[in-house]
């Protein structure tokens, strides 16, 4: 396979594809990394997908990887939703550029770990052209999660640089991408979830609650929604989870 570093509209990304099909249109997956991580940290997902004949695009999120501004972890967390909303917007750019380059055959799928999984769920709400997704340790309850983060920050004595009006404006924006408030937007597209029950970073329960409510919308096609849970796992995807996610994406992106 071939791995190339490219920059699309100011977005650094790794472009991975089988070497004998590099120039051919292929089913394509865009895969998002987690907070404080970077594009190259998910190359094992790209390897598994490329081995199955899939093109993979791994972008660096705002303020991460090649776009780093050397912020502390807390500074990144304060800008968490800015980063996610920016990634959702940039996915549209990536999709258009990939089509303009003639790289895509059939569908385009998305996936991601942690912050990348959260990004993926928001992107599913935003873009009906996404044909499937794999959400690793992600959450779709944007408003609930953002309010809980604020409470957590303030309980630790941090003074957040947001007025009350700015907070309400943030919540109003996040509602547009919130899975719980836009359930019909999934439209029975194939979605795979992986989550460890001992996850202390992105809580298991809200994501499983989302999945449980989504099942009502997948009554006519229950096989298109799958939740893989691991009882002893924390905030780290197991090899079994990674392999299951890449199998899911490879199967459904080709449809």
Which secondary structure elements does this structure contain, and how are they paired or packed?
Elements: E1 2-8, E2 11-17, E3 26-32, H1 43-50, E4 55-59, H2 73-78, H3 80-100, E5 104-113, H4 115-126, E6 130-136, H5 142-155, H6 164-175, E7 191-196, H7 204-217, E8 225-230, H8 239-253
Helix pairs in contact: 1-8, 3-4, 5-6
CATH topology: Rossmann fold
The figure for the number of domains is 1
CATH superfamily: Alpha/Beta hydrolase fold, catalytic domain
CATH architectural designation = 3-Layer(aba) Sandwich
Helix content: 40-55%
How far apart the termini lie comes to 23 Å
* Mean of pLDDT: 95
Domain Peptidase S9 prolyl oligopeptidase catalytic: 107-252
InterPro entries: AB_hydrolase_fold, FrsA_esterase, Peptidase_S9_cat
Protein name: Prolyl oligopeptidase family serine peptidase
Pfam families: Peptidase_S9 (PF00326)
Explain what you see:
The structure is a single chain. By secondary structure, the protein is of the alpha/beta class. The chain has one domain (2-253): Rossmann fold. 40% of the residues lie in helices and 22% in strands. It contains 8 helices and 8 strands; from the N terminus they run βββαβααβαβααβαβα. The protein has helices spanning 43-50, 73-78, 80-100, 115-126, 142-155, 164-175, 204-217, 239-253; strands at 2-8, 11-17, 26-32, 55-59, 104-113, 130-136, 191-196, 225-230. The chain has an 8-stranded mixed sheet, with helices on both faces. Helix 1 crosses helix 8 (239-253), helix 3 crosses helix 4 (115-126) and helix 5 (142-155) runs antiparallel to helix 6. The protein starts with a strand and ends with a helix. The mean pLDDT is 95. It comes from Planococcus shixiaomingii. InterPro entries: AB_hydrolase_fold, FrsA_esterase, Peptidase_S9_cat. Keywords: Hydrolase. This is Prolyl oligopeptidase family serine peptidase.
């Amino acid at each position: 396979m071939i791995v190339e570093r490219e920059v699309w509209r100011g977005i650094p990304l790794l472009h991975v594809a089988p070497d004998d099909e590099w120039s051919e249109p292929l089913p394509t997956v865009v895969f998002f990394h987690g907070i404080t991580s970077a594009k190259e940290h998910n190359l094992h997902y790209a390897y598994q997908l490329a081995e199955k004949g899939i093109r993979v695009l791994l972008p660096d999120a705002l303020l991460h990887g090649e776009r780093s501004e050397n912020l502390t972890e807390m500074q990144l967390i304060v800008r968490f939703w800015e980063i996610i909303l920016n990634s959702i917007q940039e996915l549209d750019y990536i999709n258009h550029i990939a089509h303009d380059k003639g790289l895509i055959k059939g569908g385009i799928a998305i996936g991601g770990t942690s912050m990348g999984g959260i990004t993926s769920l928001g992107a599913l709400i935003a873009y009906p052209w996404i044909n499937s997704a794999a959400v690793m340790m992600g959450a779709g309850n944007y408003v609930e999660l953002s309010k809980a983060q604020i409470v957590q920050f303030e309980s630790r004595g941090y003074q957040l640089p947001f007025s009350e009006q700015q907070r309400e404006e943030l919540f109003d924006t996040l509602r547009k991408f919130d899975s719980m408030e836009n359930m019909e937007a999934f439209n029975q597209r194939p979605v795979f979830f992986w989550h460890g029950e001992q996850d202390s970073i992105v809580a298991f329960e809200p994501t499983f609650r989302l999945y449980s409510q989504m099942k009502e919308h997948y009554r006519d096609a229950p096989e298109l929604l799958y939740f893989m849970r691991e009882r002893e796992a924390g905030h780290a995807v197991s090899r079994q989870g990674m392999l299951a996610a890449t199998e899911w994406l490879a199967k459904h992106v080709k449809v």
